[in-house]
């Protein structure tokens, strides 16, 4: 019996230490904002780079959609994440999510929403696809759903009434594959994801092409939960902004198809807020 009590005590201390160590890890939540982000080596390198440069024990958490990403950040307010402009705008209002930094794409913190269809199709713009099948990445995606919703609404058309069927593919990559397989007629695709996909699959251009684009829109932000201290946010922001000045950082940026990061205030996303308000106002008027 005298040996059992010390063993229990030691086991208890070890368990407490293990939990303490686990609590020191900080989730870095990511969904489909970065090309092939789920399990990609480039994303693992990116998070490892942040971990080494900031001394914050980041652990990658993959979310299958933006709603899950938002929920994880809500339930773990000390976490960081990489999200989309539209979810950020909603989560900043509802959950006090904090803006950390915005990546640069083609030298600017901006991107477009592209309307993609098969080359064989005769339609010239999204409005022409009345009664056809539309595929989108996520109902909270700025480029995949919000942008085409506004695009049609500005022409007096509601997206839910324009198509015979709308398919939620789960990612921009899946939307492109749906077009290639003939499962849908048209898609709204993130410009960044489209370019990265074409790099890997150049033959796609013999089957699909861009017929319209809208934007530019504020690009996909790195964010932090409401309880993350400003000192920690500044540390991460500084590392992100200096990535383009660091040899290893440059290589990682090249691998994910970005040019760097910049500091922006929440007002930078006002165009996205205006788009959400426009859609919400129209929805309310239909009730």
TrEMBL record:
Biological process annotations from GO: transmembrane transport
Record key words, sorted: Signal
A family per Pfam: Phosphonate-bd
Protein source organism: hydrothermal vent metagenome
UniProt protein name: ABC transporter, substrate-binding protein (Cluster 12, methionine/phosphonates)
Cellular-component GO terms for this entry: ATP-binding cassette (ABC) transporter complex
Transmembrane segments: none
Record NCBIfam families: 3A0109s03R
Coiled coil regions in record: none
InterPro entries, per database record: PhnD (IPR005770)
């Amino acid at each position: 019996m005298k040996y059992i009590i010390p063993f229990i005590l030691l086991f208890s201390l070890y368990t407490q230490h293990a939990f303490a160590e686990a609590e020191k890890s900080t989730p870095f939540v990511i969904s489909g904002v970065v090309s092939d982000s789920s399990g990609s080596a480039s994303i693992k390198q990116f998070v490892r780079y942040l971990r080494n440069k900031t001394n914050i024990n980041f652990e990658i958490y993959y979310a299958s959609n933006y709603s899950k990403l938002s929920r994880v950040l809500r339930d773990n307010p000390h976490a960081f994440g990489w999200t989309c402009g539209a979810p950020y705008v909603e989560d900043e209002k509802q959950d006090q999510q904090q803006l950390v930094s915005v990546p640069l794409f083609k030298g600017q913190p901006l991107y477009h929403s592209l309307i993609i269809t098969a080359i064989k199709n005769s339609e010239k713009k999204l409005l022409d696809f009345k009664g056809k099948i539309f595929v989108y990445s996520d109902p909270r995606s700025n480029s995949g759903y919000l942008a085409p919703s506004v695009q049609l609404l500005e022409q007096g058309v509601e997206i839910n009434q324009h198509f015979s069927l709308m398919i939620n593919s789960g990612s921009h990559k899946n939307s492109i594959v749906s077009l290639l397989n003939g499962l849908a007629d048209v898609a709204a695709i993130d410009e960044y994801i489209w370019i990265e996909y074409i790099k890997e699959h150049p033959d796609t251009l013999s089957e699909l092409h861009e017929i319209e684009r809208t934007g530019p829109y504020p690009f996909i932000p790195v964010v932090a939960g409401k309880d993350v201290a400003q000192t920690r946010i500044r540390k991460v922001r500084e590392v992100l902004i200096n990535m383009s000045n660091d040899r290893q950082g440059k290589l990682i940026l090249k691998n994910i198809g970005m040019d760097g990061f910049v500091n922006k205030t929440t007002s930078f996303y006002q165009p996205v807020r205006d788009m959400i308000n426009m859609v919400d106002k129209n929805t309310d008027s239909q009730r």
